[in-house]
Amino acid sequence: MKTALCGVRSQFVSVMFFCMLYRTACQVGSCRASASYLRAFATSGPRFGETNSDVSVVTYVQLKSMLFNRNIQLFDVRNPDEYQEGHISEAVNIPLDNLQESLKLSSEGFQEKFQVQAPGKEDDNIVFHCRSGKRSATALDIARQLGFTRARHYEGGYSEWEKLEGK
């Protein structure tokens, strides 16, 4: 219980800190610039008290924010039949069995095969997801081994997405 309260308190402090930054930036006359700081702050890590594994995980709220801001490269690593049954909009289906080979493609080859821009190794908006978080964790390991060091995964997976989206 004490840990949960500390987490809530640190989130509150983080939100208050961001509000102060946003207000200061707007007073200086750059609300548009401060919005980019907000996006970076909302999706960056680690924060005080987080471990490295926390940085690898994207929460539902972070995912929604990234989708809203169109600041995401979302890869669904489920099988094509699972993807066809329902998927998060903007997600590109790359089955886990094909992921390593796909991430090794040239930029042109990747774009031709998946109709989206190839992810860059330093991109911090790469997110993998699956049904429950297990395959996306494996996908994250594969991506990290290939040099995509800032990639993350949505641990809750499509199961959590459906539940929270009310589908």
TrEMBL record:
Gene3D superfamilies found in the cross-reference section: Rhodanese-like domain
Domain called Rhodanese: residue spans: 68-163
One family name in Pfam for this protein: Rhodanese
Protein's UniProt keywords contain Signal: yes
InterPro entries referenced in this protein's UniProt entry, alphabetically: Rhodanese-like_dom, Rhodanese-like_dom_sf
SMART domains xref list: RHOD
PROSITE patterns, sorted: RHODANESE_3
Keyword vocabulary terms for this entry: Signal
Signal sequence bounds: 1-26
Name assigned to this protein: Thiosulfate:glutathione sulfurtransferase-like
Gene: si:ch211-161h7.8
